[in-house]
Amino acid sequence: MRISSIAKSIVAGVAAGATAAVTAVQDGAVTTGEGVTIVLAVLGAWGITWAVPNRPQRPTAV
To answer: Which of 38, 54, 55, 57 has the most crowded CB, counting CB atoms within 10 A?
Structure first.
């Protein structure tokens, strides 16, 4: 199965953002600092995931 770099980046960003958001809303409010943390988590996950190439697939024997 081949997954594109864009799909991997989107999933990684959503996962990182959701994790940061769950932590931020535990006290019932999201402060500016927590909002910035959520945005930075999403952007960091997108950048790192986009920068790491997919592993080349081995040719399959027929």
So the answer is: 38
Distances 51 to 6, 44, 45 between C-alpha atoms, Å: 11, 11, 10
Q: Which of 44, 42, 43 is nearest to 15 (CA)?
A: 42
Condensed to tens digits (0 to 9), the pLDDT of residues 13-30 reads 999 999 999 999 998 989
Q: How far apart are CA 9 and CA 3, in angstroms?
A: 10
Q: Which of 5, 12, 4 has the alpha carbon at shortest distance from 50?
A: 5
If you compute the radius of gyration of the chain from its CA atoms, what whole number of angstroms results? Answer: 16
How far is Cα 9 from Cα 32, in angstroms, rounded to an integer? 25
